[in-house]
Amino acid sequence: xxxxxxxxxTQLAVIGTGIAGFAASIFALKRGLDVAQFGHSxxxxxxxxxxxxxGVHGQRIRQDPWAALDELRRDEPQxxxxxxxxxxxxxAFDGFTDALCDMGxxxxxxxxxxxxxxxxxxxxxxxxxxxxxxxxxxxxxxxGARTLVLDFDGLQGFSAKAFExxxxxxxxxxxxxxxxxxxxxxxxxxxxxxxxxLENRATQEAxxxxxxxxxxxxxxxxxxxxxxxHAPDEIRARMEHAIGATLFEIPTIPPAVPGIRLRECFExxxxxxxxxxxxxxxxxxxxxxxxxxxxxxxxxxxxxxxEASAVLLATGRFLSGGLKxxxxxxxxxxxxxxxxxxxGRQEWFRHEYLDPRGHPINRLGIEVDSAFRPVMPDxxxxxxxxxxxxxxxxxxxxxxxxxxxxxxxxxxxAATEAAAAMLA
Length: 424
Ligand SMILES: Cc1cc2nc3c(=O)[nH]c(=O)nc-3n(C[C@H](O)[C@H](O)[C@H](O)COP(=O)(O)OP(=O)(O)OC[C@H]3O[C@@H](n4cnc5c(N)ncnc54)[C@H](O)[C@@H]3O)c2cc1C
Hints:
GO terms for molecular function: glycerol-3-phosphate dehydrogenase (quinone) activity. It comes from Aliiruegeria lutimaris. Keywords: Flavoprotein, FMN, Membrane, Oxidoreductase, Transmembrane, Transmembrane helix. By secondary structure, the protein is an alpha/beta fold. 30% of the residues lie in helices and 20% in strands. It is built from eleven helices and 17 strands. It has helices at residues 19-30, 65-75, 86-103, 135-143, 160-167, 191-197, 201-211, 232-243, 257-273, 398-401, 404-423; strands at 4-15, 35-38, 56-57, 60-61, 115-118, 124-127, 147-152, 174-179, 220-224, 246-250, 276-278, 283-288, 293-298, 302-313, 324-325, 330-331, 386-388. The strands form five sheets. Strands 1, 2, 11, 12, 13, 14 and 17 form a seven-stranded mixed beta sheet that branches. The protein has a four-stranded parallel beta sheet with strand order 8-7-9-10, with helices on both faces. It has a two-stranded antiparallel ribbon with strand order 3-4. Flavin-adenine dinucleotide is lined by residues 15-21, 38-44, 46-48, 50-52, 254, 282-283, 314-316, 319-322, 334, 390-391, 404-405, 408.
């Protein structure tokens, strides 16, 4: 059968469907740009759903991310977020969380202080914005409130007992119990399957009916993140009413529902918002010309050729395929962008695995100028029409700094603003 061939023209081509890529498309739409976005699965399915800005700086856990950013600018001037002011980062963060709320997934607005987001293994971590379904759990822990946390027979990725035991000392009013999820007897179950099953009202009612008799005076009920895939806030409200106690979600280990939920939310909303989105296709080649770039993609049925006036690269790190390594060096596989790196891989890691300074390899990546354009070793932009954002950038260690989403959102905003200015 003859393969199809499709040609698309766009002002901005966003390469990558992680948080940076989706944020870039949102900001570009707000700027009135015509946007096309391409990518595949990546790190997003692994996220807790929390949006971190800066949770660790100076080897200290920070409750004050904005003050920590001021220190970051002083201590790490090459860090990508050091190129941006706090008001700019706040504008970006608010723009992203507002868009999520408009698309149907409630997120809290960034405050002055970090929140202590609950994690599946019964510890907490600093983060700036959380899904509204998870917020009551933070309040319950802070108040030491009477709380029942639940898991399910056969559930992989979350143990209510472990959660209870690890929090026991500081949260003695926390108790746990195990239920059999409706119609899921005698089998292994995964959070994604339970979330899809809770889209059904009858399942919501059946589960609420099982939880109610277990309350025993609990004011709060915590469940793993399974409250549906498409309208978690509505499902939470409905079940909370049926149970008679405040209900909240706790992230599970990856792959987890909150990231899949975000991805499906963008996939649902973007086409109506005007983004030409191909969420299952990777770009295989890019050629730059005088007035833009041509992107080449090969789908199962057809080939795509995209004519774009500007390109924003947000392809992530190793897990998502944005960076690669062999025995000798790191590379950026799509455009072969320069990566400033040591001569040999013996310099990639420190001797001690748990060295508090982290490993140098985690800070290698794409160097950009103040307009977030990838640069050559001499500092000149690789191409005036090429911009980059997110975890692929050099001079940051988002895992150690607890800054995954914040870095992605803030740099996507800055790169999109720069692209819009170039296209104006
Ligand atoms: C286990 C885990 C837990 C996390 N928890 C948190 C958390 O609690 N809080 C938080 O703030 N952040 C968290 N994150 C980080 C967050 O999910 C993102 O990794 C981070 O925000 C970086 O996003 P990104 O868009 O730059 O890259 P990624 O999310 O890695 O996305 C890169 C995208 O580029 C695509 N791509 C790669 N090559 C191509 C190509 N040639 N053509 C087209 N597309 C391509 C990939 O398919 C992918 O969609 C977590 C990540 C992991 C892995």
